[in-house]
Every structure is written in structure tokens, then in C-alpha cells.
User: Fold these one by one.
Assistant:
Number 1:
Amino acid sequence: MTIIDMTGTSTVTSHFINGAWTDSGGPTFPVRNPLDDELVADAAAGSAADAEAAVTAAAAAFPSWAAMAPGTRQALFLRAADIVERRQEELVQLMAVEGGASRAFSTFQIRLSAAMLRQAASWGYLPVGDVIRSDTPGRTATVTRKPLGVVAGFTPWNGAFYLAWRTFLLPMAFGNTTVIKPSELAPISSGLIHAEILQEAGFPAGTFNVVTNAPGDAAAIAEVFFTSPAVRCINFTGSDKTARILGERAGRALKRMVLELGGFNPAIILEDADVEESIKAVTFGAFLHQGQVCMNTRKVYVARSLHDEFVSGLAERVRALKTGDPTDPAVIIGPLINDHAVEQIDARVTDAVDRGATLVTGGKVEGRVYQPTILTHVPADAICTTGADETFGPLLVVEAFDDAETALRDAQDTPYGLSASIMTRDRVRGLAMAERFDSGIVHVNAPTMASEAALPVGGVKDSGWGRSGYYSIEDFTELRLTTMSSEPGRYPF
Ligand code: ADP
């Protein structure tokens, strides 16, 4: 089956439960192209009953998936990676029409997804434990990593294709089975297309399940995850606002949560930085996917001696970014995901300009395509510069600094701590500054947005808990301590 006919005819999508496309016969909800509201598909509006069926299937599939020989699992992951690459053009088209992703962004995601599949394919062969010396004569102690059981995932609409793999593939690589609830805004590229790929690759029924839901119905599905004893962990990528609601509920249910949330990612350009290189890094970091990624650069602190040269070079490069329909491969800036996103950025640009900020470029919108925007001289109380809340769109604030210590302090004056960038020719100084950043990720001489499948991405503070890549073994397994005594015990009574 092909879920979506790329010639433009919309289809009705089903859930994917226990290895089968399951039409619950219930209501559907429309999925629309953010560029022009054209119907992409009608998706199944799932209920708690669908989520229960999916959790039951995942729980039933768990013992044999957990026990599967590493080589058998490896072959499945490698096949899935090949399918992802074979279907590249179709995926590029899907991400453009469903999520407004440029070709630059969708091919980036496809590359990362195939890489992550191939890396995870080998993890089954890595050591799973340690032997620990015991003080008790004749006792041997071992610790072994065991999968948790069913991991439920919420996948986001923005880096939909890659971030969905990240949500379920990592737990699966460590022997868990999964149920995911894709974003209502892009359910195909954040989950259903993955089901097609895994089905073709031959993954056993029930190891991966998808239940889609209409806007407003997420809580009922989440409640199934929280109340089901089989679900041992909830892996959420989204906003910190929703994460707080889910985290409170998880606390009552005593469920483990992994959270990949927002960021207010700063770049610091020191006075000895390569200006040309900094302009390229910031343009990419701030404007990839029109600023709708949690790792986009939101604010640049640039040494005053470089400020004017940097801003004029940056503005020139940013003005040259083609905007419009992302099915045009030359377009870099496609539409924002919905009207709310347009209203948010527009209100914040207006707020800053009203307070006296300088609009260097951008600030205009056509439909939902918002021009990439640079603001300088932004007063400290303007919403877009406070660091309290990320503006999820193509808006970058640039500020000059006189003293790098002050810039380092100001750059961390935010509740978030996801990614940061430091540009300098002095690598030792760059590393020393990186060391002092309270952030999950710091790149020296690279943009805030510099993901690779193998690198552990994750935040501190309000940016979340947990890491991607192999380090996620700590989130998606638990340690079993086993001891064995070969001598009679000595007891005090
Ligand atoms: P974004 O703003 O990036 O769309 P959100 O954090 O609002 O991110 O939503 C992410 C996911 O959380 C979506 O799949 C949505 O369905 C789900 N969600 C939102 N509100 C709730 C809620 N009250 N209970 C459970 N899930 C929710």
C-alpha cells in the first residue's frame, strides 16, 4: 500500500496496529498543505480504544522482539535504511506538501534517518553489561541492560520524518516495542510513512504501532499510555508547555519520561571569528526549515568590532534565500505550519519594532510564507529577545557585545538549555567558553543546528531530559543486577 498518492489525490489513512492497516471506521480529520490549505489526506481520528489495541499489540510483540537475535534485528534495520533511500524523492515531496519542508531540510532528514537506522543496526552486538567485584566471598555480581517493555512516543510535526525515527527507533534498537501518536499537523511524515517502511522491511507485527488522532483528542490517547501497565516510558518531543501537563500526569502514574523540548539557542561570535564562516553558520542555523526547529539559532551576540560587517553580510545572504512553494527545489523558506505560527512571529516582530528595534530585513508575510527576518538594537523588554519563550519561525535577533563575559552570561539568561554556538579562531578559548555553557549541546565553529545521527542531542533546564543516539540506552533500558553465590552465606542471625 502507498499511503499517499503523490500525484496530489488525497487519501484516507488508517492506524497501523499489530502489523496491519486498521480502519477503525470512525471519524477522520483533514491534513492540509500549510502553503495553500489543499487537502493532503483525511486521517483516522483515533480513540482510546485504538490506543489500547495498539498497546496490547506492542505488549504481545515485546518478548520475542526483546529476545530476537542481534543479527536478525540488524537485517531489518538495514533493510529499512535502504528503503528510506530508495523512496527519497517521494519522501521529499511528502515533507514539502504536508509540512512545508524545503528540499534542503527534507534531504537532511532523510540522510540522518538512514544513518541512524544503520548505526542502530549494530547496537545489538554491543556489550550489555558489566561484572562487579563483590565483597562477599564466592559471590559474582553482574549488571545487564534490559529493555523496558512498551515505549509510547509523541512525534512532532516540524522535523517530522527524522524526529519520528528518533522517537521510536532508538527504543526499538534496545529491544522495546513501540506505539506512537504522530502530530495532528503532519501524521504521515511523523509516523504513518514509517509504518509503511517498516512493514516493507519485514518488522514483526506489533513491534511498531501508530495511532493518529484529531486535534483536541490527544489527551484521551495519552491517558491510555499513562494508565497501561505495559507502557513503561513515554518519549515526548514538543513544547515545554505540553510537557509540563504530561510530566505531571506521568508523575502520578510513575512513568519514566524522555523529553525533547524547545530551546532559545544563542550564537556568540567572538572578535577573532571568521566573519564569512559565521555568516554562513548563522544563516543555516537560524533559517533552516524557516526557523521551526528546536535547535535553530534565535539570538546572535556578536563582538562590536564585527557587528556592522556581520549584519550587512548576513542580511545580504538572508535576502538571497528563495521563499515560496517548497516543492520548488530552489526554495529554502517555505510556509509556516499554521496561522498561529504566522501570528506569533508577526506579533513579536511588531512588538520589537514598536519598542524601537531596527528591522534589517524581512518582516513581511505572503500567505503563510514569512520572510526571513533580522532585528538589531532590540530593547531588552521585547518578547522576542528575552529568552523566556522561543519564537518558532524565521526571526533572528542580533546584538553587539563589548565584553565576551557579559555575552556568555546573557546568552544563558533563559530557562532553556538546548544548543549553543561559539565562533572563534581561538579553539582553546572556544572550548573553555563551551565548558562554561549550561546547555546540552555547544558547538565551537558550527551552527546551533548541527545534528548528526550519532551525536547525543538533548537539553538541560526547560529543554528536557534524555539524549538521542546510543546514549539513549540510559533512557530506554534498565539495569538488572544479578548475583550468584557459590559459598554458604554468613548471617548475623
Ligand atoms: P507543538 O506546539 O510543537 O505542536 P505541542 O507540545 O503543543 O507541540 O504538542 C505536541 C504533541 O502533544 C501533539 O502530538 C499533541 O497532540 C500532544 N498534546 C497536546 N496537548 C496535549 C494534552 N493536553 N495531553 C496529551 N497530549 C497533548
Note: The CA atoms of residues 456 and 469 lie 5 Å apart.
Number 2:
Amino acid sequence: MSNNLSPDKIFSPLQKVGAKDAKLVLANMYWVIFSLFIGGTAGLLQTLVRSGHLELPFGIGYYQLLTLHGVILALVLTFFFIMGFQIAILSKVCGPLSRSQRKLGWTGFWLMTAGTLMSAAMIALNEATVLYTFYAPLQAHAIHYIGLTLVIVGTWVSVAGQLMKYFSWKKEFKGHKTPLLSYMTAVNNVMWIVCTIGVAVTVLFQFIPWSLGWVDRINVSLSRTLFWYFGHALVYFWLLPAYMSWYAIIPKILGTKGFSDNLARMSFVLFLFFSIPVGIHHQLVEPGIDAFWKGLQVVLTFMVIIPSLMTAFSLFAVFETYGRNRGAKGLLDWFKKLPWKDARFVLPFLGMLFFIPGGIGGIINASGQMNQMIHNTIWVVGHFHITVGAPVILTYFGVMLFLLPHLTGRKITKQTNNMALYLGYTWTFGMGIMSLAMHFAGLRGAPRRSTYSEYGGAGIAEEWITYQVMQAVGGSFLFLAIIIAVILFFKLMTGPKADQPEVFPVAEMMDQNAPQTKWVENWRLLIIITVFLILIAYTVPITQMFTENIPGAEGYKLW
Ligand code: HAS
Ligand code: CU1
């Protein structure tokens, strides 16, 4: 009877990612490094254009480049990384994927690839210069929207295979807690399916018919609302894989235990509940949504801050316990005991440091009136570069550092470890000055997106020029870091094979054997609560978009 198995019979820490699954994971990782290179180059050029140091050749437009930068880094890089990492996790902690599960992974991969190429072609042809948020009334070629749809459908197919793996483990070992990391992938995946429905609806029923000329109008408020129903959960879809590493991998790298399995699961459940009914915090200055509903979603946004605070608390607990076990006595000297030479720890740790101001910035953004101060200024760009652009990506780098050699039968060497440290410090320095400048310029009213030349370099724009130059310097360091990352990628993928390949570290938790909190894996209940909260937050505002005459949108129905 499987029920009588002891947990260590179910999961052996030495288990490797299955060989066939490794190929699938690596295919995803090639897209990650390619996207990083293309998107990073675009980013560098942008900072140079903004500060008036460069005019783009060959008739390339600034917004065209900015669209490429946003789409390839925020959507393509992240999606491929997340699919690859989650598949690796499941194969590691639940055993190799079945043939059909792996097939779904590959089908998803190819759909995402096809969709990416379609969108990329349209962006290259300047037929899709609509930025990554594709706000109407900016309009792209239909192929761009169809490409993005294929990318999303590709993630659904891959996610279906991943969820099948999780649920088949759960069934096979009925009565046991599922491995923490597999549970985390399941939460992220379920959240993803629920939130992408919003973007799928707006693209299929609004943007595609409109771009094909079947209808001549589009309900702008509705399209933005459906986008942000998806868009805020999107940022957690990026973040949660980093949290998976912070909760369940980093402690093992330190050689210690994670804080609490139950707390980690609780924090992920809260993300599932509160990531979606908060999208209107991106629309606080928009007309057509009643103040009451904006207020309600602001309150719900403050709820979704709680699981991040829980995460910060758990991390401090792990780090402090680790340092004290090594003889730290004073208030803060545990800090010095941390393994400052191990890049697998240092990269994500630098990310965590960024997330302290990143999180504070988010709280400022969400705070009703304060949003009016920063909305549509370059402060927001600063905010997302110290959330997705530092904590998230540095943690992804930290994961790839052990994952690539693990999958290819190699080891991290002293040289690759040091290169990774350089990567981390260069990134931190570059992103540090760039995002600081963005925050300051934003507070002085510098708009997001616009270039310096659009302001003619005169009047108020003079005030921002120092900040623009700081951004260009920061951008140059970031580009240097990207070059290091690309070289590091190939070093990790080639190099001599090792007898004992790099391990995929998975931590035990301090409360590993505590009884499981049953309702946390009661998916029916979790989904009912999630949908219930969404209905409360969105039913009235969306209904009003159909029934009320919003200025400029009189008589619009779906489009
Ligand atoms: Fe945000 C805009 C609110 C988090 C990404 N956000 C954006 C946009 C992006 C983005 C991409 O309410 C721009 C979208 C666009 O194109 O228009 N954001 C929040 C809030 C949070 C938040 C409340 N954002 C993120 C994360 C992102 C991300 C995470 C990406 C991954 N954001 C907003 C709002 C806007 C917005 C408004 C709209 C602005 C506008 O008007 O346009 C919260 O989730 C933040 C909670 C985080 C914390 C921090 C916890 C800290 C931890 C680290 C601990 C460190 C340790 C190490 C332990 C409370 C876990 C320290 C050790 C030592 C020794 C010191
Ligand atoms: Cu948000």
C-alpha cells in the first residue's frame, strides 16, 4: 500500500531530472539566453536614444525597439524559463514525466516557438509597434495578436502536462503531502490558467476582429480591464518561480533547512486568491471605473502584499538561524556568515535586496492618491526593473547556474562560479544606478516611454538629462552583464563532463513532518474561492462597461 510509504521512500534527494525531460528543459533554456541577448541589446540602445547619444539606423523606430524589448524579455524569456524550470522541478521531485506529459511539454514548446516567430516578424516589419501591453487604440497586424495567442496556448498545453504530473503523483501517494516544490508549480499553473482567460478574451473577441477589419471600433476601457485582469497576475507568474527557489532551494544551498512547509504553502495559496482581483490598480487614473471599485481593488492589492511579507520573514529566519548556528552572536553579524563566495546563493540574494525597495515601490504605486504622482512616469519603469528586472531575473540566473550543469552532466567550476559572481555584481551595479535614476526622474515628472529628443532637449527636459545619462551608464553595465551571462551559458553547457554532476538542491523544511493542512490541497475549494473573489472585484465594473455610456465609448458593446 502506497499509504504506508515513508516520505523518504517517495522522494530521494539524489533523484535527478529524467534524461528525456532534461532535453525538453534545455530546449526552453536556449530561448531564455537568446531572448536575453536580443532584449538586452534593445535595452541598451533605448537608454542611448533616450539620452540623446544615438539615432537609430535603418529607419528603426524607438517604439518599435521598445516593443521588441518588452515582448522578448517580459513575455518570451520569462515564459520559456518558467515552463522549463517547472518541468525540471516536477521531474526532480515527482519523478520523470510520462510519455504523454512530455509530449504535451514539447507541443507547448513548439506552439510557443511558432507564436514567438510570428510576433517577432511583425515587430521587425514595424507592423506591431504597440508595446508589450498592446493598449488600444494602438493597433497591430492581426498576425501579431495571433502569434501572442499561440504563445499563450502553448503555455496552456505545457502547463496541462505539468498539472497531470502533479495530480498523478497526488493520486499515487494518496494521503501524503505532495512535495512542496510540485505544489508550488501547481499553484502557479492554476493561477496562470485563470488569469490568461482575460487576455485570451480580449485578444480573440476584440483585437483580432478589429485588426482584421471585421469591426471598426474597440471598447478601450474593456480591453484594458481584461488585459490587467491578466497583467497583474502575470507579474506573480514571473515572481513565484523565484519564490520557489527562495523557499525550497536556497536553504539547501546554505546546507540548512527551510523555515516552514506549511507557511510556504499558505503564502502560495494567498497568491492564488489575491493575484487576479487586483488588476484595476493599473487603471486608477482611468475614467469609466467607479471610485468604489478602484478602492476595493486597492484593498485587495494590500492583501496580496501579505504573502510577500511572509516570504521576507521566512528568509530572514533561515538566514539568521544559519548564521547563529555558525557562531554569530550580535544583532546582525549573522549576515557576515552567509556564503558570500557561492554564486548559487549570491545571485538570488542580490535579487532579494532589490526586492526590498521594489516591494516598497509597489506599495507606493498601489496607494490610491500616490499613484497619481507616479502613474505614467518613468518611476514605474524603475519599479518594474527592480522587481522583474532584478529579483526575478537574478534568481533565474541563480537557478540556471546549477540546473544547466545538472541537466548536461557537468559541474560548476571555480571559473564559472566566479563569472556568475561578476555577472551578479555587474548587474546589480548597472540596475542599481539605472533604476535609481528612473525613480528620481519619475518623481520630477519625467514621463515613461517618451524620448529626450521628443522634448527637444529644452525646458523641463533639461532637468532630466542627468538622469537620462545615469540610465545610459546603467544600461551599459547591464549590457556588459548580459555578455557575461551569454558566455557563462555556453561555458556551463559545454566544458568537461563530471562523474558526479551538479546537484539540484532541494531543501527539507523545519516542519517537514508536521501534519499537512488538508484544505490547502483541496483544489475545488481553492478554485471556488479564487473565482468568488474575482466575481466580487470585477462583475460590477465590467458590467458597467457594457451598460453605461462612458465618454468616448458611447454605445460600444464588446467592440
Ligand atoms: Fe508592480 C506596475 C504594485 C510587485 C511588476 N509592476 C508594475 C509594472 C510591472 C510590475 C511590470 O499598484 C508595470 C506595468 C506596466 O507596464 O504598466 N507591484 C505592486 C505591488 C507589488 C508589486 C503592491 N510588480 C511587483 C512584482 C513585479 C511587478 C513582484 C514583477 C515581478 N505595480 C504595482 C502598481 C503598479 C505596478 C500599483 C501600477 C503603477 C502604474 O500606475 O502604472 C507587491 O507585490 C510588492 C510586495 C513585495 C514586498 C517585498 C518583500 C521582500 C522580500 C525580500 C526580502 C529580502 C531578504 C534579504 C530576506 C512587500 C521577499 C534581505 C537581507 C538583508 C540582510 C537586508
Ligand atoms: Cu499590478
Note: Confidence is low (pLDDT under 50) at residues 1-5, 555-559.
